């Protein structure tokens, strides 16, 4: 007989099978057993434990997923489909509205996606059909603030040569060496051509960012020399970055892979024969969140130029000419007008033959220890020749240019927000300079100035304001000045969820608890001062005419609160 017997009920750690023959005292023939087979299924369990780092990332060598390989010849191991690079490209615009000369540098930022890439070719836009040389400079970080800092760029990363294809057509250059860029990293690019000038497009806020699955580009600036000369921004480099994703034999895991992951492992021998198996990778996060209790205050300085004169604390300086900045109107001499009053210099009204150089300067701001400093404003600029309009900030020792306008703005009025964190100091200022360079231009305007910055307070005291009902529900995030957790916070709570009027005047210690998706926990304690900043609300009696009696000598003022003609309410005092 042949057959299977279900033994699941008897499965245990010491499972055995035995066969017993008993003739029970009589004479019989015999018994036999052949082709014994015990089949069962069991969870693989175990697997390879992989621990994420503080950035929420981990890499595995596919060889670590195998317990052994029986192959006499050579072989390679890959996992999860990795191991081969692919080609790609990302283009910006080929609609040049402006351009520079031979030797100029055009700069922009490249942020690499989840995989390493290597840049192999560059396309540029040039009006020329002549031969040219190209140098590519690369720095880790952003080009912003390094436009005229040659030390930050170092030596040429790669070079090449090509022949111009003509206006608004890609002119290709194959680099003499690939430029390898690491995943999840931002790099500044400076493209310099010799023999031809590069075409670029004036930035308008809507045409300065390009991306695909592998990288993104944020553009950009033109500099009239190799890290020296005038800086023109925003300028959108016209071109294409050709690249390859870098081949890797590794296997990467992130916070998105927490838990068990079934990975296909492929072994390919030198003759191309393939075998596969599956391995379990347990992705584990054991790193607890890092949190800091305390207040991180964000401040904002605003000027909307709605008055008819220069605002208090601001100053104008007529360095050349007689015309000055004008206030009390939003009318530009050419192009679109501001919708509200603005600070405007009207070069057209100054008249032909007049040379004008005028400066508008902000008050001094103490930005000691400030972070996330952004200078924002609305700007208009219409030129007629060679006029320029520059924006600078004072870094405590010298003025640093953060923007330059040298061509008509399209749209005519644009909103800027420029990171000036690198220049924060105790005597920070912003100034706008209009220079008609002896020509007769239209003019420039500024409106809606906004300086925002953050300064962490000393200690960890947080002020909580009570609401109209005399209570406030604590937002746990409002008690934290910093959170470091690559995989994100899944739960946050406080041990004191609400405060009320009875808490005024005492410092309350409130503990914040957080947990990430893996159950790692952290806590910190904040000092909380509860304050009431809401004034009482009073209702006065209606206007009245009263008779003070004979000789107008005597009149007793009624108790209007008792009569109900007057009321007073407060969130923390009852009765008032």
TrEMBL record:
- Please report the name of this protein according to its UniProt entry: Subtilisin
To which species is this protein native? Aequorivita lipolytica
Lineage of the organism: Bacteria, Pseudomonadati, Bacteroidota, Flavobacteriia, Flavobacteriales
Q: The organism sits in which domain of life?
A: Bacteria
